[in-house]
Each structure stands twice: as C-alpha cells, then as structure tokens.
Specification:
With about 170 residues, the protein is mostly beta strands. The protein has a single domain (about 5-35, about 55-145), classed as Jelly Rolls. About 0% of the residues lie in helices and about 45% in strands. The chain has strands at about 5-10, 15-20, 30, 35, 40-45, 60-65, 70-75, 80-85, 90-95, 105-110, 115-120, 125-130, 135-145, 155. The strands form three sheets. It has a seven-stranded antiparallel β-sheet, with no helix packed on it. Strands 3-11-8-13-6 form a five-stranded antiparallel β-sheet, with no helix packed on it. It has a two-stranded antiparallel sheet with strand order 4-5. It holds the Pfam family Polysacc_synt_C. Catalyzes the epimerization of the C3' and C5'positions of dTDP-6-deoxy-D-xylo-4-hexulose, forming dTDP-6-deoxy-L-lyxo-4-hexulose. Its EC number is 5.1.3.13. It catalyses: dTDP-4-dehydro-6-deoxy-alpha-D-glucose = dTDP-4-dehydro-beta-L-rhamnose.
Length: about 170
C-alpha cells in the first residue's frame, strides 16, 4: 500500500484538512460553536436548522484508547457526524464511490477538545480514526439512521492491510 501525499487545506476557522485532492464530495467540516463564560463552556454540536441536517436517527458515543485505530468502515444509507469533546483523534476518509468527482481522494482531519469541530461523512465514504492523544478519546456520533441490530448498515475493511492508500503510522519530522 502506498500513501498518497496529503497537502493542507483550510476548511474553517482553526480547522485544517489534509487531503490528497479536494475535500471529498459530500464531506462537510466546520468549527464547533463554543461559548465560554465565567461558569464554564457551552458547545453547540448540531442544530435542526444547520444546512447539513438531514434527519435524526440516534446519538451515541464511543471511546478509543491512545494509539488504537478504529477503521475502516462505510455505510450505504447512514450519514455520520463526528464530534470529539475529550481527547484527540485523527479522522481519515477515503472516497471509494466510483461515480464521485473525488473518487480515490483521501482526507484527514484532527478533532478534539482543543480543536472542536464537526465532520459530516455521507454514505459510501470509507472512514475511521486513531486516538493520537495521550488519553482516551470520546467520540460522539450523530447519525441519520437508527442502528438496525438485525441488518446493520455497516461494511468493514481491515485497518492496515487493504487497498486504501492511507497509513495510520505517526509521521515524525
């Protein structure tokens, strides 16, 4: 597997995407609205009047330990929206939709408590993440579909030995 070179693309205030091309068609990334005051912070993740909002399926959270990769998978119907309130992850996306104008493109973005943002991942995009901080990361996912225990809309690819031109290894330098 060869790694595609990733260049920096600013997508929103304070959020930098690394990409082998353009932002993948249908992927949206924006800074989360965080409002601090003397009592603490309030953070808006998603609202029904957001331009991305399709419909509500469910909200769940998952955690990932430092150095662990949770990848790759995609959905045929479901849209994911990731937000990371605690810890730090790098999210990788791969456009495997042959009909897409960004077919074959890899995107990578960091999300976490110090770079609050929301990433929208449409159906058909292979995606996953790695916890790159030194503490457990908490990921909130707002999905468009409810999980169907009898027929899950989840299709998996191995994290390392696969056809996706992305390497999860840390890049020192």
């Amino acid at each position: 597997m060869s790694n595609l070179p990733l260049r920096a693309v600013k997508v929103d205030e304070g959020l930098i995407l690394r990409s082998s091309g353009d932002v993948i068609d249908g992927v949206e990334i924006r800074r989360a609205k965080v409002i601090p005051d003397e009592r603490g912070r309030l953070g808006e993740i998603m609202r029904a009047d957001d331009p991305w909002f399709e419909k509500f399926g469910q909200v769940y959270f998952t955690t990932t330990y430092p150095g662990i990769v949770k990848a790759w998978h995609f959905h045929k119907k479901q849209t994911d929206h990731f937000y990371v309130p605690k810890g730090l992850i790098k999210v990788a996306l791969y456009d495997e939709r042959k009909e897409s104008s960004t077919y074959g493109t890899v995107n990578q973005i960091y999300l976490g408590e110090h770079c609050p943002g929301l990433v929208r991942i449409p159906p058909g995009i292979q995606h996953g993440w790695m916890c790159v901080g030194n503490e457990e990361a908490y990921i909130i996912n707002i999905v468009s579909e409810m999980y169907d225990y009898n027929s899950p809309d989840e299709y998996r690819t191995g994290p390392h030995d696969n056809h996706i031109p992305y390497d999860w290894e840390r890049k020192d330098g």
